[in-house]
């Protein structure tokens, strides 16, 4: 695309609507804004601006649209596929200062807030009202706007669903600067196409979220976890369909292997309750009475023991909960700290194919002589598989990662899986999505993009382009 380069006149306009201390250019832009959490893909914006209101975002977009300047929106920058990298330069709008919680409506179980509010602030805030926002993506410092744009999932998806299931309403700014309100506090809505649901998961390519209405539910009174060691991963994963079928409804079913636990122990300088087995399931149960939870977890514990589990650890004290869940929360950082660089395959396969896929990654380790680490959501088949660079040269790493990823995504297609479970496509995974869906499907996506953004100025080069 033939985009206009940002010049002094454009800067002058941005300063006139935002004032000088919210417009950054050249060396005054921190290098963090050139990449997301995974790195690998990097490009600086020509100008970075901080928005405080919908009106400001609308004015910027109207100007950018008229002048053919590309725009990328950014929250906390915790993405893992390069979706917020400004690969064409242009204007980057930081939404992190639009971070107010605007209203809690206890009668309609709804929370209205701005897109820059952090995930960890939401759960803390609503719990004071005895309410619960169930989506639980691993990165708690992500913004709700970022969660919406990637339709983030997390550990509780197996029971409660993903971000899209909790979006009641959105205010968005279109690429031409027009402001749209989608949905609202209503519980049901069959009025026309669901544009709200299109925005959720669109990775900042269709519109800019400036206000959100979230659905809340009553807060479960109690939660208990089980840590269950198995002799091997096959046995652990093989038990999951039986757990799901048992109607005991765990909130989370995570799988982990010994080497990732050891990395987390080293990273946190904390001991895990048990690190002697090759594979583990970590389950959580929530509810309103101890009796209900005990009935559910005893049923599951018996299923696991019958399937060959070595033991069942009940995680019911604060100290044990902290040891287990802080380790699970640190897996990504721990793996990252153990190598020089890494890239991730965020693949989702049918639940009963998880063990087969993980076994295949073990073969790839030997075939390509590269370290591969994995963990993930056994309950919904979403796996996080990390390929580690270690001592490889940049050129060798580039070649090897392409081959390994090609093999992994091919395997996921064979197993009737999908390219991304929760991190999105962004810039990094576009080729794999085209291989997955084929021309017709991707062309339909391109036409949807064209309907929202005929000049292709909003986050160009991402998802389906």
Describe this structure in words.
The protein is an alpha+beta fold and 465 residues long. The protein folds into 4 domains: 90 residues, Uridine Diphospho-n-acetylenolpyruvylglucosamine Reductase, domain 2; 118 residues, 2-Layer Sandwich (Uridine Diphospho-n-acetylenolpyruvylglucosamine Reductase, domain 3); 111 residues, 2-Layer Sandwich (Alpha-Beta Plaits); 86 residues, 2-Layer Sandwich (Alpha-Beta Plaits). It has 15 helices and 18 strands. The strands form 4 sheets. The chain has a 7-stranded antiparallel beta sheet with strand order 15-12-14-13-17-18-16, sandwiched between helices. Strands 5-6-10-8-9 form a 5-stranded antiparallel beta sheet. A hairpin with a 4-residue loop joins β5 and β6. α12 packs antiparallel against α13 and α14 crosses α15. The protein starts with 7 loop residues before the first helix and ends in a 13-residue tail after the last helix.
